[in-house]
């Protein structure tokens, strides 16, 4: 999921979510879309709206939904809470927390460390080109 959402403004929310399947067909895309609407319920009533009609936070949810559609083993999220209201940032955290039970690995690059505090199994901080472990599997900060 790119930081800037990369939705196509004139396409509907659902078309944006399904757009990767236009390049790489996915036979189970309808079932995956239904699961996404179960996970991100806020998008279902918006699915026929053009992406340009959504708030920035709603666009982030649509971008996450698109990533979830194709992300079977690994999800890469770049600044998922950048530019969204704290309530929506917390909602994004809830969605990712619920995914912890799945077989999908999640890698998040995020500068807002309060939203995802204690959410992931491992946390590292990149400072001046050096990757420093901060916490591993429930340990307190090192």
Number of domains: 1
* Number of E-type strands: 4
Low-confidence stretches: none
Mean pLDDT: 82
Number of helices: 4
According to CATH, what is the topology?
Rossmann fold
Structure notes:
By secondary structure, this protein is α+β, with helices and mostly antiparallel strands. The chain has a single domain (13-136), classed as Rossmann fold (3-Layer(aba) Sandwich). The chain is built from 4 helices and 4 strands, in the order αααβαβββ. It has helices spanning 13-18, 29-39, 56-70, 86-98; strands spanning 74-78, 105-109, 122-127, 130-136. The strands form 2 sheets. The chain has a two-stranded parallel sheet. A two-stranded antiparallel sheet has the order 3-4. The model has no long low-confidence stretch (mean pLDDT 82).
Give the topology, please.
Elements: H1 13-18, H2 29-39, H3 56-70, E1 74-78, H4 86-98, E2 105-109, E3 122-127, E4 130-136
Parallel strand pairs: 1-2
Antiparallel strand pairs: 3-4
Based on the model shown, name its key terms.
142 residues; two-stranded antiparallel ribbon; alpha+beta; Rossmann fold; 4 strands; two-stranded parallel ribbon
Question: TL;DR of this structure?
Answer:
This protein has 142 residues and is an alpha+beta fold.
């Amino acid at each position: 999921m790119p930081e800037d959402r990369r939705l196509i403004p004139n396409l509907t929310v659902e078309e944006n979510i399904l757009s990767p399947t236009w390049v790489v067909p996915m036979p189970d895309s309808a079932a995956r879309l239904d699961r996404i609407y179960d996970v991100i319920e806020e998008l279902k009533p918006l699915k026929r709206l053009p992406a340009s009609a959504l708030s920035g936070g709603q666009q982030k949810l649509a971008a996450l939904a698109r990533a979830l559609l194709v992300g079977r083993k690994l999800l890469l999220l770049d600044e998922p809470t950048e530019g969204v209201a704290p309530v929506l940032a917390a909602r994004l955290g809830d969605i990712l927390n619920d995914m912890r039970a799945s077989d999908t690995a999640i890698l998040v690059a995020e500068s807002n460390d309060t939203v995802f505090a204690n959410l992931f199994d491992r946390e590292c901080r990149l400072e001046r080109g050096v990757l420093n472990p901060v916490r591993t599997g429930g340990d307190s900060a090192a």
